[in-house]
């Protein structure tokens, strides 16, 4: 349910459980962590999903069994954030719950016009993963972060773009083409130079 395609230095990771809104089971999350923690050799990484939803976050049954508070989420976002290559979340649809962490950890986020962003952890009685509010606040400020995490607002793709939460809105048929275009220069560059620029931007 997690697909990994390697094409030269480009790693494309696809969430493939569209019948369940790409909600993540323990096995799926463990596989994502494994990929992220071994992606140091990648020269660019694109994270996307199948179907109309990027990810609904944790699978409900798995969440009730403890996945909602697992350290796997933090391991995943931390591993993505630590990668020296350019990382792009290509959001094929709505981004919800704990899945926000992996997208926030990417360098760039692009989304289809129909996408929405929400993170209803407070309503469900959980805290967000520790790094997620800080990463979100760094992008959109503390007030808008509270709008999502505490006021429970679903943010449209246009609002997310206006806030600075996503970097580009792209028609669905152009999503992956755009993602690949964004990483093209990094793929062509000296990896040490690309990694050096990434460090300078942090």
Structure description:
Belongs to the enoyl-CoA hydratase/isomerase family. This is Enoyl-CoA hydratase/isomerase family protein. InterPro entries: ClpP/crotonase-like_dom_sf (IPR029045), Enoyl-CoA_hyd/isom_CS (IPR018376), Enoyl-CoA_hydra/iso (IPR001753). This protein has 202 residues and is of the alpha/beta class. Helices cover 44% and strands 20% of the residues. It has ten helices and ten strands. The chain has a six-stranded mixed sheet with strand order 1-2-3-5-7-10, with helices on both faces. A four-stranded mixed sheet has the order 4-6-8-9. α1 (26-37) links the parallel β2 (10-15) and β3 (44-49). α1 (26-37) packs parallel to α3 (72-82) and α6 (131-140) crosses α7 (142-149). The protein is globular. The chain starts with a strand and ends with a helix.
């Amino acid at each position: 349910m997690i697909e990994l395609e390697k094409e030269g230095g480009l790693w494309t990771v696809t969430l493939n459980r569209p019948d369940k809104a790409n909600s993540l089971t323990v096995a799926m999350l463990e596989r994502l962590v494994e990929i992220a923690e071994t992606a140091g050799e990648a020269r660019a990484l694109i994270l996307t999903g199948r179907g109309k939803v990027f990810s609904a976050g944790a699978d409900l049954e798995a969440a009730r069994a403890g996945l909602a508070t697992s350290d796997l989420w933090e391991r995943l976002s931390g591993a993505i954030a630590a990668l020296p290559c350019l990382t792009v979340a290509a959001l094929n649809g709505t981004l919800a719950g704990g899945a926000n962490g992996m997208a926030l950890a990417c360098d760039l986020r692009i989304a289809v016009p129909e996408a929405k962003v929400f993170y209803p952890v407070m309503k469900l009685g959980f805290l967000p993963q520790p790094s997620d509010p800080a990463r979100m606040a760094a992008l959109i400020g503390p007030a808008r972060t509270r709008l999502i995490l505490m006021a429970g607002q679903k943010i449209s793709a246009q609002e997310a773009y206006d806030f600075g939460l996503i970097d580009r809105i792209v028609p669905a048929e152009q999503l992956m083409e755009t993602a690949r275009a964004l990483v093209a220069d990094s793929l062509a560059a000296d990896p040490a130079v690309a990694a050096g620029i990434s460090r300078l931007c942090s």
